[in-house]
Amino acid sequence: MTADAAQYLGAGLAAMGIGLASIGVGLIFAFFLQGALRNPAAAASQQGNLILGFAVAEALGIFAFLVSLILLFVV
Length: 75
Description:
The protein contains two helices and no strands. By secondary structure, the protein is an all-alpha fold. It is found in: Cell membrane; Membrane.
């Protein structure tokens, strides 16, 4: 395996984190909606946790994207 092939393989594996982060965001909102429909009175108190979970999952996707770009263009 050449160095270029290893570089592209590593960047592709790092880019998989972007798709996994989008799955995580979807699950966060799905479970919030499920809980809000079961207990509407508690939905307002859980909205802060929803935003925090969304931000963390989205940040992990952005970090995975940056790692893949670094592997492609810097290394």
